[in-house]
């Protein structure tokens, strides 16, 4: 596994002794215009509800503990005054409630139970 700094160097040509230097010197990040906080909040809501919640729930279904991601969902929920565990993309909403990890994997790979 590579560090974020190595990832930035490899894929974006960023350099720096520290991560903040690499990010500040990265042309990709420099090219991102200053968006309003409303846009960032909207993107964060989408990312948390549509990506982080199902990743945590799927990992936990497979027996993998995700305490940091679970904590981030809770923190972002507090900041955005949203209970993402209720409003996010849950296993029930994905049609995966009650399935074992093996059943979920088979459904994803083959489309059948």
Pick out its properties:
113 residues, mainly alpha, N-(1-d-carboxylethyl)-l-norvaline Dehydrogenase, domain 2, 2 domains, globular
Number of strands: 0
What integer is the average pLDDT? 91
CATH superfamily of the largest domain: N-(1-d-carboxylethyl)-l-norvaline Dehydrogenase, domain 2
What is Rg? 18 Å
Q: Can you characterise this structure?
A:
The chain folds into two domains: 32 residues, no CATH class; 76 residues, N-(1-d-carboxylethyl)-l-norvaline Dehydrogenase, domain 2, CATH 1.10.1040.10. α4 runs antiparallel to α5. The chain starts with a helix and ends with a helix. The mean pLDDT is 91. By secondary structure, it is mainly alpha-helical. The relative contact order is 0.10.
Provide a compact summary of the structure:
By secondary structure, the chain is mainly alpha-helical. The protein is built from 7 helices and no strands.
């Amino acid at each position: 596994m590579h560090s974020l700094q190595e990832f930035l160097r490899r894929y974006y040509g960023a350099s720096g002794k520290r991560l903040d230097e690499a990010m500040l010197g990265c042309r990709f990040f420099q090219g991102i215009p200053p968006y309003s906080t409303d846009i960032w909040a909207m993107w964060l809501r989408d990312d948390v509800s549509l990506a982080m919640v199902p990743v945590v729930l799927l990992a936990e279904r497979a027996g993998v503990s995700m305490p940091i991601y679970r904590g981030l969902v809770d923190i972002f929920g507090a900041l955005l005054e949203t209970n993402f565990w209720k409003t996010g993309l849950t296993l029930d909403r994905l049609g995966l409630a009650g399935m074992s990890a093996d059943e979920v994997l088979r459904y994803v790979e083959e489309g059948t139970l």
